[in-house]
Amino acid sequence: MDAATLGILRDTSVIVLLSLLLGVAVYQGMRTAFPESRVSIGRVDPSAFSLVDVLMVAGIALLVLFGLNESLGNVAQEATKKEEAAELTAGGAFTGIVVQLLICTGLLVYLSTLRGVNPAELFGLRRVRLPRAALTGLLAIIPTWVIVTACMVLMNGWMKGFWPDLQGQDTAEAFRQSDDVVAKIMMAISAAIVAPLVEETIFRGFIYGTLKKHTDGIFAALASSLLFAVVHMHVGTLFPLAVLALAFCAAYEYTGSLLVPMVMHGIFNATSLVLMILFPDMPS
């Protein structure tokens, strides 16, 4: 990853972090001065979240920022790193799955043990049965996929005017170029099953819920969606992924269950993988 890409991602993460902290402070001040002004919208109930959770969210944003800063400091070695990242191995894919599950497990343990809340109740997992969540997610992802694809085409077309060497995401390119069938299967499991479960739990369930409690739904959706986009470490998909994340937030609020955005996320990732397999020359 080149210095320009890392610089944009770092600056975006700084903006998100500062906006997050400033937003919480401003909203808390407004609610203290005008307690009657608080308006609750949607079906996501964030009342169980506390200011301690805000610090956890800020910590996640700081980890992203520190990681980008470290990468920017080692930009001279990026050519070697890129070559290594382009290699998809079964061991690497399995390690990625384990790391994601450990992070998600740590968050769930924190919520259930230290915070004393039930994650299943907190995220509305029992509110909608799985068959209905699957059908709702399938219907919702169709217009979402069209909108996100249009955003991606427009974004790439605009960026090619001043960023002609715009590459695809490292993980997508690694999947496309790999000849290791086992590694590709592991990558597909990670993208279509593990990542939707983990990322929706972290970004929509925890980060969005925490920010909604201490700001409002719109601010929480924007901040959590931008952070979600930055974490994917690709400039060309920053805006499309933020739009995708906003659609996940909308689905979460509409149904009150995190199962629906999980299903949408899984279908979106699975569709992207299938398209890469069927059309290997298609931009990723």
Characterize the structure shown.
- It comes from Brevifollis gellanilyticus.
- The chain crosses the membrane at residues 6-27, 48-68, 88-112, 133-155, 181-198, 219-252, 258-279.
- By secondary structure, this protein is mainly alpha-helical.
- It has one domain (3-278).
- It has helices at residues 3-33, 51-73, 78-85, 90-114, 119-122, 130-159, 170-177, 181-214, 217-231, 238-255, 259-278.
- Helix 6 (130-159) packs antiparallel against helix 10 (238-255) and helix 9 crosses helix 10.
- The longest helix has 34 residues, at 181-214.
- It starts with a helix and ends in a 6-residue tail after the last helix.
Number of helices: 11
Shape: globular
Average pLDDT works out at 89
- Major sheet attributes: none
Number of domains: 1
Could you tell me the radius of gyration in angstroms? 19 Å
Number of strands: 0
**% residues in beta strands:** under 5%
- pLDDT < 50 runs, ≥5 residues: 79-85
- Helical fraction: over 70%
InterPro entries: CAAX_protease, Rce1/LyrA-like_dom
Keywords: Membrane, Transmembrane, Transmembrane helix
Transmembrane segments: 6-27, 48-68, 88-112, 133-155, 181-198, 219-252, 258-279
GO molecular function: endopeptidase activity
Please tag this protein with its features.
284 residues; endopeptidase activity; globular; CAAX prenyl protease 2/Lysostaphin resistance protein A-like domain-containing protein; mainly alpha; CAAX_protease; Rce1/LyrA-like_dom
